[in-house]
Amino acid sequence: MSPCARFPSATGNLRNLTTNPPTLNVHGCVAYEGLLYVVTDGGLGETAYFAKIDPKSWKRTTLLNHYYEQPFGAFNDLEVDKDGNFYLTDSKSGFFRHLVPYTPPTNPTTYFVDGKTFRPKAVHITTGNANGVSLSPNGKTIYLPNTGVSQGDTKDPYGERGLWAYDLVTLRGKRDSKAPVLTNARMLTNPIANFYDGIRVTKDGWILTGANDGVDVIDPVNGDILGSIRVGGDGEAVNMVLKGHDF
C-alpha cells in the first residue's frame, strides 16, 4: 500500500504511488517545503512511524518510530505549523481495525514534534480516541475531534464525539520551552450524526471536518455548523486536502 495518491491531469484517474522503501498503512499526510510528511498505523513487523517522502524520487525516510523507546499505538493524522513543527495524533484505530497485533501502550495522545530535532512531547491525552488535528491560520489555536464513539467495527453510542478547540501557549521562564501548552479548552460543537474524522482549516479560518456522509463547515468562533458538503452514494468523507488552504 503506497503513502499517497494523485490525480494525473490527463486522465483524472487515481493511482497508487510506491515509495522506497515501501510505506504501509499510511493514515495521514501533509506537504511542507516540497516534501510530504506521513504517519502510519504500523502493522505486522513494524510499529507506527512518522516519515518524510521526497515526491521527486519517492524515497522515504523514517523520522520517528518510538516515544523514548515505547512504541506508538497507531498514528492517525498530523498537522504542520508555519515553522515546520508537527502535531501527531496517536490513536486506538490501528488496534480496533486489527492492523497492529498489540494493545495500545497508552491512551490516545497528541504529540508536538520539534521540526529540527524531531523530539516528541505529549501535549494532550484522552480516554476517548484521537483522530484529526488542525491549526488556525495564525497558529494560535489547535482543533482536535474526540472520536471515542468509534470502536473500529462497532460504535459506542455514549462515546465522546465532540470537536474541541484549545489555545496554544508557549511557556517562558528559566528555560524557554518550544513545545506549547494547550489551554482554554472549549467544545465547539457535537456532530448531529456519526462523528468527526479528518479536519482542516481554510485560510479564512473556517473549519472543515469529515462527518462520514459529508464535510461539515464550522464557524471557529461559536461552533455553529454552517452547512454540509454531501458526498452522496456509498462514499464516506474521512479526510480532505485544501490547495494552499483555499476554500
UniProtKB/TrEMBL annotation:
It comes from the Eukaryota. Residues 31-246 form the SMP-30/Gluconolactonase/LRE-like region domain. SUPFAM superfamilies: Calcium-dependent phosphotriesterase (SSF63829). PANTHER family: PUTATIVE (AFU_ORTHOLOGUE AFUA_1G08990)-RELATED, SMP-30_GLUCONOLACTONASE_LRE-LIKE REGION DOMAIN-CONTAINING PROTEIN-RELATED. This is SMP-30/Gluconolactonase/LRE-like region domain-containing protein. It comes from Xylaria arbuscula. The lineage of its organism: Eukaryota, Fungi, Dikarya, Ascomycota, Pezizomycotina.
